[in-house]
Amino acid sequence: MNPTKKSFFRRRLESDNSWGYAFIAVALVVFALFTAYPVASAFIISFQDYKPLGSTFIGFDNYAETFKDALFWKSIRNTIIYTILTVPVALLLSFAVAILILPLKKWMQTSFKAVYYLPAVASGVALSVVWLWIFDPMDTGIFNKLISLFGIGNQNWLGSSSTAMFSLVFMAWLSSHGTSIIIYLAALLGIDTSYYEAADLDGATFLQKLRYIVIPCLKPTTLFLLVTGVIGSFQVFQNAYLMTGGGPDNATTMVGLLIFNNAFKYFEFGKAAAQSLLLAGLIAVVALVQFKFFGKEVEY
Amino acid sequence: MKTKSRVLASVLALGLSVTTLAACSSNNNDNGSNNAGGASNAGNAAGAKDTITALLPPVSPTYQENFDQMAKDFNAKYPNLTLKIEPASWEDMTQKLDTQVNAGSPPDIAFIGSDGISKYVQQGMLMDIKDAATPDMISDFDTAPFEYMKNGAGIYGFPAYMEAHALGGNKEFLEKAGIDYKNVQKNGWTYDEFREAIKKGVVKEGNKTSRYGFVFATAGVASKDYLGVLVKGAGMPNAFTTDNKYAYTSKNYLEVLKDIRQLIDDGSMPKELSSVDAGKRWNMFLTGQTMITGKGLATFENSANKNNEKIDANDGSAVKGSIKTDYIVLPVPSFAGQPPVTTVAVDGYVTFRGKKEPSAEHKANVVKAAYFLASGKVAATTNNDLFVANITKSGKTAAEGMTTNRNPDNVAAVGVLLSHAAPARPDIPVELGAKAIKLEDEVIVPKLQALLAGEISPEDMYDAVKKAAIDTFGEDGVVKE
């Protein structure tokens, strides 16, 4: 064996850089295969009339059709309304629950964290079945039983345009806090206790500590949860698909559901890919705006 | 030591990467062999070994239990052929099939509704078997259901059954309401007769309705059924007229919409109808909360009978709160003076192709398998289980020794319904069909939900459908009167 070559390999073997590249290669391969490749593929398909036996290039037709599609704009509007109604309230609830859990003993904290995280582990379909029972339009439904105590008649929760969106929003309010609570709790535990001690010496009340210590210290966490919450909310699909199917009168048709229908119901993969990329662009813009306005005073 | 642990770590990391890649590549291989059906056996000589893949849902309650026997019987009949059955639930059947189709590697045969044929024809993924199906095979089938497996000039599989979409009534409640159901079974009824009949079926306790006259599932997977079933009897047996003009812009369509709203306003149907799904309305029927339900399939009689047996045996698995029910098959009313037309569901064994052109030998083998499943003993057993009529001569012969506890009046009523079944329309171009499906999904169903919820008027819905139809098919592409 060539001694120069051998020493080159040995050098490479002993170099930290090479090992670093080798280790990140795993993640890189997975990312390339399951994220980068599908995105690149979706980009190409968005300019095609996709067919398994041979696609044809159609330029910007899919984009043009999407912009002319009234249902696309309605779905964008629905998604924005859903996001505005769910994300801030969900953050507030998660924050409140985390604050309530914080003073508890460790085993109780763990128990509560597990309980709140449980819906994230449970099957969405199973949860939907339970919610369908809660929203049952006849007098056997839990909500209808509840409101009948106040003399209010049966409501067609998921079947009426006036209540369908609210029903989905309500479902989101009560079933998706596990992750946020755990993150908030971790952030709360990370606040230096000397701040609270100093505040106690100054005679600060609970609300003052909340306002002047907790909220500012949690700004990076809140920003993170807000951005990821908005991204998740813009991609919402399952609830609308399982609970209302987008109805009534498309009142709960979200962009995610529209894309799914175009792709898997009508096999219009090109149009679905174009709409996916437009949604990705929209999410990126919204995230940038959030960083611009809410990220100013955040210290990392 | 340090270098050794690095080497070990990198081997593990590499292993993970290779596993990931292998997962992808093995997937591709699987696709290849599935598709084989079509492709990889291209060079097979006649009589050479071949495997036919079939994706099959639980067509009847005992259907999937018989898969091993079906595969064995097929192999006994054709020793060189293997029938490889992949079971799927109804819930994930479409998703499984669509994923395989769009990956270019569908099974050779899938059990689907004939209304799905145009979608796959448009994708170019169906296998036309007109040159592989023998005259003996074709002549075994009744003509009407067989036509449903055609699209254009192509034949894309064999039908398993033709099922009438009817209504189902509770015999006791019908009699109490003074409805001569036997006459209705024979002669049908008009909308006005039907309206008056279901009014009589309503039972109130104070302000609360304890029994409705009629409940039809309109939510979830059943969302398309209600209007689709009704308009057939209003002079629109298909979304397109015989000269391929879109029919749902006709004035009769508006009449049906008005009638739909009227039945809710009468109090004969629940105002929450837009949220009543198939499971809910069946529960309402068995628990005596409605006199008539829809849509009614033949197998519902079987379900009702079984529930009756459970009630008799004091079996806890009977539907909670259910009462004994004699299920009566009833026709859907006709509208606007038009003749009755029955909506039928023709489901069957549809033949697919992969990315590569299938060989003639493989095509012939797939046809043998599809025919084996759609005829003779397999069909007879399945259809007997479903309470549906056999549509092959061989199936009828095989079913001779089989018994069911069907009400003979119901058997006769289904016969009457099938005598005016909506004819198949293989002549409708796939592009037109696809546009009509999209219009139905994006405009008709959502507007119908709003109409049922009382949020829009029948006229609003009619105008919205008409506008969308003109936008889609053009002024000259729609019916004008």
From TrEMBL, chain A:
GO terms for cellular component: plasma membrane. Its main location: membrane. GO terms for biological process: transmembrane transport. Signal peptide: none annotated. It comes from the Bacteria. The chain crosses the membrane at residues 21-45, 80-102, 114-134, 164-191, 212-234, 272-291. It is a multi-pass membrane protein. It holds the Pfam family BPD_transp_1. It is found in: Cell membrane. Residues 76-290 form the ABC transmembrane type-1 domain. Belongs to the binding-protein-dependent transport system permease family. PANTHER family: ABC TRANSPORTER PERMEASE PROTEIN, INNER MEMBRANE ABC TRANSPORTER PERMEASE PROTEIN YCJO. This is ABC transporter permease subunit. It comes from Paenibacillus sacheonensis.
TrEMBL record, chain B:
SUPFAM superfamilies: Periplasmic binding protein-like II. Keywords: Cell membrane, Lipoprotein, Membrane, Palmitate, Signal. InterPro entries: Bact_solute-bd_prot1 (IPR050490), SBP (IPR006059). Residues 1-22 form the signal peptide. This is Extracellular solute-binding protein. It comes from Paenibacillus sacheonensis.
